[in-house]
Amino acid sequence: MLDFTEASLKKVLTRYNVALEKALTPEEAAEELYPKDELIYPIAKAIFEGEEDDVIEGLQAAIEAGKDPIALIDDALMIGMGVVIRLYDEGVIFLPNVMMSADAMLEGIEYCKENSSATPKTKGTVVCHVAEGDVHDIGKNIVTALLRANGYNVVDLGRDVPAEEVLAAVQKEKPIMLTGTALMTTTMYAFKEVNDMLLENGIKIPFACGGGAVNQDFVSQFELGVYGEEAADAPKIADAIIAGATGIKELRDEFHKH
């Protein structure tokens, strides 16, 4: 006879991990991930909530208590953003939440820099742009926000950027990666021109492309192309590069879905 008592059902749910899927609010889910340090906790929480004033207030208190301003970027701001990114990846929160948190984190970084004579270290530089002829920059703005939130120095060239300007920026900044977004099919072909210009000048960095008009098959046609299906793939591709995956084939093996 089947046992449908509360105790029996609870055991079954726990066994199959359903108990962990309890209806937590985003705030409750974040609460379980915050650091316990009494100085770091309010900063991380303010980042999650996207409250810029509270971030600055928390940083000020931590600095007055003896914390190093630059160290707080990694030890508090990035910790808070890590909570945001994890919950976004798990589908608990959504892109507008990430954007608000990223803005709050960037304000916090500027505050830390203003209160220190030292220069914060970044993971690396990424150049971002929207394809020539395309004025739709929402996707690019999301990419830049997520990259900055993950500790990268971003050189944002804006929208409708000629291939020559992209090349010049790459030559000047020497980034670990270039990103391009395009919303219209009529503009995505500019990526092939950028790819060819880079190769002609002996530059073989990964060129991560995405956007509403772009698909994996198209990006795979040019030598440096790596397809990012979602904006959140950009920092993951960059992380893979600094972890040693510099080959285009290696990146495609990891990030191309089919």
From TrEMBL:
InterPro entries: Cbl-bd_cap, Cobalamin-bd, Cobalamin-bd_sf, Corrinoid_p, Met_Synthase/Corrinoid, Meth_synthase_dom. Residues 30-124 form the B12-binding N-terminal domain. Pfam families: B12-binding, B12-binding_2. GO terms for biological process: homocysteine metabolic process; methanogenesis; methylation; tetrahydrofolate metabolic process. Signal peptide: none annotated. Keywords: Cobalt, Metal-binding, Methyltransferase, Transferase. The keyword Methyltransferase applies. PROSITE patterns: B12_BINDING, B12_BINDING_NTER. One of its GO terms (cellular component) is cytosol. Transmembrane segments: none annotated. One of its GO terms (molecular function) is cobalamin binding. Residues 123-258 form the B12-binding domain. Belongs to the methylamine corrinoid protein family. NCBIfam families: MtaC_Meth, pyl_corrinoid. This is Methanol methyltransferase corrinoid protein. It comes from Methanosarcina barkeri MS.
